[in-house]
Amino acid sequence: MDTQSQFETIHDGDLGAPVLDVVQEAVDAASITYARTPGTDVEQTLRAELRSRGVRARSEATVHALADRIRAGGEVSVGHHDGSVGLRDPDTTVAAADLPPGAVRRVGSWAVGNRDGELFAVSRRCRHQLADLSEGTIDADGCLVCPWHQARYDVTNGEMVTGPRGFFGYHGPTPGYTELVRGYARVLRLRVADVVRRGADLVVVRRG
């Protein structure tokens, strides 16, 4: 059984993204919650994050497997490499013409960018408050900048190199809070993928 078949939609209708991309976003959100509050009930949090996105696991075994990986720390990826919860092999594409130098685009669960001809792909959700990084910008140092509170990411390894300036609706200096966010973001780095050219398309290929 492949990993996609381990999940199902709750209601009829389009999720707006592939099921595995939706599941990955839920897992990322649950991982961030656990990093902030280690005593969190991970299974309950994960179920809630899946449900809020219109998806559920077909069995509790799948929920427990993902929750165990979240508690173990580090990156948790969802896919069908070996028919279990594990590595993904996404073949999502964007037209090369739609990604000129300086641009960032949403490609499935990835923020794909072009920094002066060097292509990159990182997971879309900021480790601070889950802003969509595909709506961010590339700064003069080649870092991806979050559109909400300007956290900066090294796109070669997914590390947050500058913490956020603010939270929720506030924008400004927050020295202690900024370092706290950077602290757990060092563990929960963005996922990083390769981008290869195939004809007129750019294809995101998961590493691993």
From TrEMBL:
Listed InterPro entries: Rieske_2Fe-2S, Rieske_2Fe-2S_sf
Cofactor field: [2Fe-2S] cluster
Annotated Gene3D superfamilies: Rieske [2Fe-2S] iron-sulphur domain
A Pfam short name: Rieske
Keywords for the protein's UniProt record, in alphabetical order: 2Fe-2S, Iron, Iron-sulfur, Metal-binding
UniProt domain Rieske: residue ranges: 91-164
Cited SUPFAM superfamilies: ISP domain
Stated name of the protein: Rieske (2Fe-2S) protein
Superkingdom in the source lineage: Bacteria
Alphabetized CDD domains for the sequence: Rieske (cd03467)
Organism expressing this protein natively: Nocardioides zeicaulis
Source taxonomy: Bacteria, Bacillati, Actinomycetota, Actinomycetes, Propionibacteriales
Homology family: Belongs to the bacterial ring-hydroxylating dioxygenase ferredoxin component family.
Signal peptide interval: none
